[in-house]
Amino acid sequence: MKENGDQLVQLRSTHDYEDLSGRFRLHLKNYERQFCNIYSVRIVEARRRIEKVAATKWKKSVKKLMDLNNLKGEQCVIVGTLYKNQELKPSVLRDVSKEYQTVPPAPRTHFVSDKDELILEDETQRVTLHGVLDVHSVVTGCVVAVLGKLQPNGVFMVEDYCWPEAEPIAKSLPALTQDKFLVLISGIELATNKNNLSLQLFADWVTGWSGAKGFIDASRLVHVIFAGNCIRCKPLPKPKYGTKTDSTDDIEAVKELDYIIQQLIECIDVDIMPGEFDPTNHTFPQQPLHKCLFPESAQYSTFRSVSNPHACKIENRLVLGSAGEPIADIQRYSNLTDPLDILEKTLDWAHMAPTAPDTLPCYPFDDYDPFLLTERPHVYFAGNQPEFQTKLKKGPKYDVRLVCIPSFTATQSFVLVNLKDLECQLISLNVNKKLKT
Question: Distance between alpha carbon 93 and the CA centroid of its chain, in Å?
Fold first, then answer.
């Protein structure tokens, strides 16, 4: 609080910030590479950590799959990448054959059946898994260590399993002396959401101009992250033959987004991530929205167009998350339905998007896997979820705040995370009633 003549001026809190999304940026684009390379580097990078976990848990050394035949049914530990053999998984060849059918089958959104089976692969060979590892609770691409025995029929019977662990950041966190809040919002969908009054109320609330109770708290807001789907959450409708797609709504939405962000960045830092159907590349990781879309906002140093996924450090707290595409893809290829449960599982699996590149389109990385969780984040979020969910997951050295950010268009709400103690709360805006928290 600063005294200016006869007036009291509320000063906004400052904060330290470091952008860590460099591993998601594509500097040299080469699409001639094979997608198998990303699986090779994934298992190599994950093996060191998972072997350490397995040795601690079972006190056994890890064997290669090619050594199984020499063990003669002895109990052993093997490490590999899971592959789910799913007959309902979309196939280009199957789609071509369906063109010759008179009545096309109904489209599917969920591809799980009782005939699904798990296969474990490493650099040498593969083996079918049976046992305690539930095929419907995992997805293709997860690296796992399994304890069990090879059966006479060639199937490996799993008795127990473990996942690699994301290592906690070594140095201890300095304590914050005051509350500092991170604002998480997603799914404003300006091209399809014509009710911009609630979004303007959001901008007024963050900047402190709403006049509502909580103005003092507004001075503690230090950073805003737009977690995808700022323009739209669905693809443009396909044009009729001989006509052009009308993208006027998108053009107006970009202008409106630039106007809203300009209001925010005059007093607070803003990171904007693309979403699945925002104007950038469709494959994962999505590259930052071009700054030419924001002629006014791009002039400010407090504005950052970032990738999806996005990683940063705010007050030495590691913040990591996506616009929600990995969560939706895992729901399609497993019986996991709860977004918060899936978000927690990706943390346990130490991988943000295990289904990439199998069912989630991604760039063909060949020297590293950017989606592996090498460090345990403090705030781990997923945008564009149907409702707000959160959980404080206990862990070594410090806890992780899991956050499912609701779609702003559907719920008119956003999330505050207190960087001091990782407490989390939902802020709901109702344009027909007074502001409520």
Answer: 30
For 4, residues 6+ apart whose C-beta sits below 8 A from its C-beta are: none
- Contact by Cβ (8 Å): 278, 257: no
Least confident of 43-57, 83-97, 111-125, 233-247: 233-247
C-alpha dist (Å) from residue 157 to 59, 75, 77, 146: 19, 10, 11, 9
Query: Checking DSSP bridges between strand 62-63 and strand 76-85, what pairing results, if any?
Result: parallel
Q: Which long-range contacts (CB under 8 A, 24 or more apart) does 393-400 make?
A: 393/344, 393/347, 395/168, 396/168, 397/168, 397/169, 397/172, 398/168, 398/169, 398/173, 400/347, 400/376
19, pLDDT greater than 60:
yes
Q: What share of the chain in percent tops pLDDT 90?
A: 52
pLDDT at residue 329 greater than cutoff 80: yes
Q: Which neighbouring-strand residues pair with 292?
A: none
Reduced to 3 states, what is the DSSP secondary structure of residue 266?
A: coil
100 vs 263, which has greater pLDDT? 263
- Are 225 and 414 in contact by the 8 Å Cβ rule? The answer is no
Helices 339-349, 325-332: axis angle to 10 degrees equals 100
Tokens for 431? 């344009």
Q: Pull the structure tokens for residue 262.
A: 């300009």
Torsion sign (Cα): 286, 287, 293, 295: positive
What secondary structure letter does DSSP report for 335? S
Rounded to an integer, what distance in angstroms lies between the CA atom of residue 423 and that of residue 390? Answer: 10
Instruction: Give the pLDDT band of residue 126 (cuts 50, 70, 90).
Output: very high
> Among positive and negative, which fits the CA dihedral 128, 132, 138, 143?
negative
Side-chain-side CA neighbours of residue 187 (13 Å): 25
For residues 346 and 340, give the distance between their C-alpha atoms in angstroms, rounded to a whole number: 10
Q: Tens digits of per-residue pLDDT, 165-181?
A: 888 876 666 688 888 99
Mean pLDDT of 8-30: 80
- Give the SS3 label for residue 349: helix
The 10 Å Cβ neighbour count of residue 216 is 10
Q: In the structure, what pLDDT confidence band is assigned to residue 142 with cuts at 50, 70 and 90? A: very high
pLDDT score for 435: 44
